[in-house]
Amino acid sequence: MTSEDFVIGYLRILDEKNHNADTVRLLGSIVDTSKDGLISYAEFQAFEGLLCFPDALYKTAFQLFDTNGNGMVSFQEFSEVIQKTELHKKIPFNLNSPFIQLYFGKDKSRLVSYSEFSQFLHDFHEEYAIEGFRRADKNGTGFISILDFQEIMSSIKSHLLTSQVQSHLIEAAQLSQGAGSRVSFPYFIAFNSLLNNMELVKRIYLNVTNGHRTQEVSKEEFMHSAQAMSQMTPLEVDILFHLCDILHQTGRIVYNDLYAIAPEQYFKQITNRLAEIHAVSGPEDRGVLIQILESTYRFSLGSIAGGECVY
């Protein structure tokens, strides 16, 4: 079948009459590993098998950027895909930055393997967030507006945001930085670092409570354990407790608070579902394929321009 048959006819992700051709082609190319424009039954079966891997999101993201199917990603392939995203149109990334040169070489001729690309994609999220901060900080003050903070987090770091965190970004920043104030660069970095390390935060909590998940923990108790176990900073601890205060305003945290904040909830939900897949037999089972393709785009920095889903 063609990419259009797969994306529009089978998955019904995009509207038949109102869709972007690039979106269809790129979505289809994740499954079309031969990159000949057609999806064979063998390729479809291989895609089903790929979904069972624990690193399925990274693998599908790699296939999205490996547009010629040679098992490597070039700078040209990466830049062509990124420049088609809504995110790049909203917050352009400097494709001539030193960061890009470190991965693709000064002359951008270096090819990146899957394992290297998985690290690149992880680091790219962090670099893109800093790039977004720089662009919002037009006067170089080291501060951005709270609305800019919300925009950067929702656009670039959406894969780290649970619904609870996303709906309270402004409130959390105001609680930490003061109502009507601006967000400092240290706060911005600490906020992202906290969300990136929520599994460590859970271990610190369980260390304080000796494994009990309903015991309330004060900031002082948590800080003491954090300093003994890790390099978690006082600012990160402040942000953690501000986020938890928004949820229940007790000044203490319990394990459920961490579960509500942790991006692991998002990744684990997908991973658990994928682990149960054996075969997708018909259109009634297309939901799981939609989920992984959607997740790939969310994980790979937003959607392709004109790629609004219709379900």
From TrEMBL:
Keyword Repeat among record annotations: yes
Top-level lineage group: Eukaryota
Keywords in alphabetical order: Calcium, Calcium transport, Ion transport, Membrane, Metal-binding, Mitochondrion, Mitochondrion inner membrane, Repeat, Transit peptide, Transport
GO molecular function, a single term: calcium ion binding
Biological process terms in GO annotation: calcium import into the mitochondrion; mitochondrial calcium ion homeostasis
Provenance organism: Acanthoscelides obtectus (Bean weevil)
Cell compartment(s), UniProt: Mitochondrion inner membrane; Mitochondrion intermembrane space
Name the record gives this protein: EF-hand domain-containing protein
Gene Ontology cellular component annotations, sorted alphabetically: mitochondrial intermembrane space; uniplex complex
Family the UniProt entry places it in: Belongs to the MICU1 family. MICU1 subfamily.
Domain named EF-hand: residues: 53-88, 124-159
Pfam hit, one: EF-hand_5
InterPro entries: EF-hand-dom_pair, EF_Hand_1_Ca_BS, EF_hand_dom, MICU1/2/3
